[in-house]
């Protein structure tokens, strides 16, 4: 007489387990809520990491470099990449390898395409790469750990709000139509420096995203006197007040050509105070040709933790607000580190 009720209980439990499993799978991507990023298990993630120009480097897929970056405690690396149409090295197979190698070190991969830098007319070309079936397959494979930076610094200062909204609404729609749910990262115009366009249009774009899963990235190449401490403080304060999910995707100690100073210490301090993520430019395996002072590691040991020097040593290790002293990895990402 007890067999039938027990069978019913068993079937109900199986059904509940199946529903829960489907729900977990459906949520298996990081998610932006308000102005914060959360891992697939719901833990807050404040990004701390570096950029590296892998597509032009001697370590294309990061086998040697990621373990060195991981020694800083970084929880994210922005992967400078190009579409396979612009560089055959940017194949889906190589993208798979570089993302896998980053995840293996317990760090979030943030691939970005560099081919439209400053060039508004090339945004669609970058989107076309991300929606290729073979590329989508790679992104879906790694989606729980992934941030997808659509394109680097697209467009100059001449781009208007209407253009920005229209083009990025189209980009979001195309990428989401592939089934990808991971956070999409959108750079400011003006070679990444235009935070005003992000503040003016970010809320609108979030509403256009069916996943409501966007981050906005300003590149603080704000040199003195325009990059004064008060400007950094005020722009961050404004972004926080409007609940904008903002990160600082690039910054360095000097501007292009090493001509003017950037107040990088204030950037680091204000980001910590306001729980805003940042990524320093750049690790230095591939040197910055226009300004060697941007390289975090020196020529003799470029790309190696032991080669950290000057501002690179400060931003990665020794400063009060450095990666080592402020970066945190959630349990979800720690489990992916093969060395732990």
TrEMBL record:
Coiled coil stretches, renumbered? none
Describe the family membership recorded for this protein in Swiss-Prot or TrEMBL: Belongs to the glycosyl hydrolase 5 (cellulase A) family.
Print the keywords alphabetically. Carbohydrate metabolism, Cellulose degradation, Glycosidase, Hydrolase, Polysaccharide degradation
Domain Glycoside hydrolase family, residue spans? 39-284
Supply the name of the protein. Glycoside hydrolase family 5 domain-containing protein
Q: Which InterPro entries match?
A: GH, Glyco_hydro_5, Glycosyl_hydrolase_5
| Single Gene Ontology MF annotation | beta-glucosidase activity
The reply to whether Hydrolase figures as a keyword in the UniProt entry is yes
The Gene Ontology CC terms held by the record are: cell surface; extracellular region
Species annotation: Adhaeribacter aerolatus
Q: Does the keyword Plastid belong to this entry?
A: no
Give the GO terms filed under biological process for this record. cellulose catabolic process
User: What Pfam family is a match, any one?
Assistant: Cellulase
Q: Which domain of life is it from?
A: Bacteria
